Amino acid sequence: MDLTGRIRGGVLKGDLLVKGFGDPTLSDRDMDSIVGHIKAKGIRKITGNIVIDRSYFKVGTKDNSGFDRHTYSPYNAMPDAMMFNERVSTICVTPRQNSVTKQTPDGSYRVVNNLRLVNKPCRGRYSWPSFKVDKSQGTPTVLLKGPISRNCGTRKLCQVITKPYKTFYYALKDALKQNGISVNGGFRLNRIPDNAKELFTHYSGPLEKIISKTAKKSNNLYARQILLLLGAKMYGAPSTLQKGRQAVEYILKSRGALNGRKLYIDNGCGLSRTSKLTARLLAQIYDHAYSKYGQRWMNTLSIAGVDGTIRKRFRGTVVRKRAWMKTGTLRKGRFYTVVILVNTKQGNWRASQLQNNIIKWLVNYKGRGVAVKPSYRPDHSARNSVVERKSVKPGPSAASYYIQAGSFTHAPTEAYLSQMGSLGFSYRVENDGSYKVLIGPYSTERSARDALKRVRSSLNREAFLTQNSSREKRETLLY
C-alpha cells in the first residue's frame, strides 16, 4: 500500500493507494492484518480516496470465461491483478430467520429477495433458493425467487457477480470503519502515481502452498493467475496471456523438459478447447519436476484416498496414500509416471473404472520405475500438505542470506549492474536458465532484511530474500 499527501495528527491528508500484484489468495481473512498495518502507521482518518491499481495484469474486464452455460460458477472466474475472495460473492440465505445477507460487505451489487417461504420438508425443489443475475444496468442485481422451505438451514450462494477490486474496496472500507478509521473519499480505479510514498507491503503465503491448492483442488483461477504472474516476472508488467505462455515455454525449454515437443497453452488452466499437449510430453514434464524437487513436488499433488480431487477414490484399497494421480505410484522406492487422457465426455464412468484398474495394476507391479532421481532429497517426514519451514539461528556452517534483486531472460546490462555498485551493494549473477541477480551474502537474516529495505526503495520493490544453503546447494524463498 502507498499514499499521497502526509500523515499529520493521525489524519492522512491524501489518498490511500492499493496495487495488486496477482495474489490469488487475498481474501476477507487478510483484512485484520491489512488494517492492523494501517493503524500501526498512526492513521485514524483518510481525507482522500481509496485508489486501486490493477494494471499489473492486462486482462480486460470480463468476469467469467463463458466456457459453458454455468456463467456465474466460481470455476469460470477470470483472473485479475487485484484479486479478492477468488472473485466470488457469497450470499447467505437463512430461511428459518427469513434472512438474506452478504457474507462480505459489498456495495458493488444488489440483492432482491423475492423468496417465498413454505411449510415443506427441506428437500428437492424446496431445499435451495433459485436466483437470476441481471447485469443490464450499471449495478449487477441478484434476484432470489421461488419457494424454499422455512425448515432449511443457511444456504450459501457463491457466484461470480462483480469485480474483485470493487469487493476489496468495500471490504477494506468496512474494516477500516470497524476499527475507527474514517474515509471521506470514495473508490477510484487508477495507476499509482510516481510520487506515491510506500506505506507497507502485504505478502501472500508461500508459493508452494498456492501451487498445492492449485493442483489438489484443480483451481482454475489460481492456475490462470500463476500463468500471468510468470509472464510479469519474466517479461515485465503488464502481463498478458502471451507473455505467460512464452514464460512457461521458455522455462520448460531451458530445463530440457520439452525436448522439441510441441505444446500450446491457452490460458493456464483446464478450461480450454484449444490447449494441446501429448501424454508423453506431460509425463516428461512430471518427470522433470520430480527430478528437481522430489517430495516437495509430490506434496503439492492430490494423494489417493486422502486429499484433493481424489480423496474419495481408492479408499480401503492398496492404492490409498501410495498414488499421486497426476504423477504415478510408489512401491519400494520406485516411482512411475502415468498419464491417462480421456478425449470424450461420453463414457466417463467407464473411463474412471479403467483409470482405477490401471493404477491398481501399477501399485502391484514389481518391475523397474522411471529412471529419474530427484536432485532435491525428499523430506520423508512431510505429510499431505507443504510443511512450513522453521527458522533456525545460523551456525558455523549455516546458510548465507541473499537478496534476489531481479530475474532476466537475458544477461543484465552493465548500466543495471553498475547502479548496484554505486549504491554500495556487492552482488553476483547466476544463470540456471534465467539470469538471477543476487545481492549479498549476509551472515544473518536481520542484516539481510535491513538491506532488503534499501534494495526495495532504490532498485526493485519486488526484491525478496533467499537463503543459499551450502548443505543443500539450493535457494529457499524466505518471503
Explain what you see:
Residues 327-333, 378-398 and 469-479 have low confidence and may be disordered. Helix 1 crosses helix 2 and helix 4 crosses helix 5. It contains 10 helices and 23 strands. The chain is flat, with a radius of gyration of 25 Å. With 479 residues, it is an alpha+beta fold. 26% of the residues lie in helices and 22% in strands. The strands form 6 sheets. The chain has a 5-stranded mixed sheet, with helices on one face. A 5-stranded antiparallel sheet has the order 20-21-19-22-23. A 4-stranded mixed sheet has the order 2-3-5-13, with helices on one face. Among the domains are: 2-60 and 166-198, D-Ala-D-Ala carboxypeptidase C, peptidase S13 (D-tyrosyl-trna(Tyr) Deacylase, Chain: A, 3-Layer(bba) Sandwich), CATH 3.50.80.20; 89-159, no CATH class; 278-360, no CATH class; 401-467, Alpha-Beta Plaits.
In the CATH hierarchy, the architecture of the domain at 2-60 and 166-198 is: 3-Layer(bba) Sandwich
Strand order of the largest sheet: 14-6-4-1-15
Estimated helix fraction: 25-40%
Give the overall form. Answer: flat
Q: Which ranges are low-confidence, i.e. pLDDT below 50, for 5 or more consecutive residues? A: 327-333, 378-398, 469-479
**What is the alpha-carbon Rg in Å?**
25 Å
Q: Count the beta strands.
A: 23
CATH superfamily of the domain at 2-60 and 166-198: D-Ala-D-Ala carboxypeptidase C, peptidase S13
What is the averaged pLDDT score?
A: 84
- How would a textbook summarize the main sheet? 5 strands, mixed
- CATH class of the domain at 2-60 and 166-198 equals Alpha Beta
What fold name stands as the CATH topology of the domain at 2-60 and 166-198?
Answer: D-tyrosyl-trna(Tyr) Deacylase, Chain: A
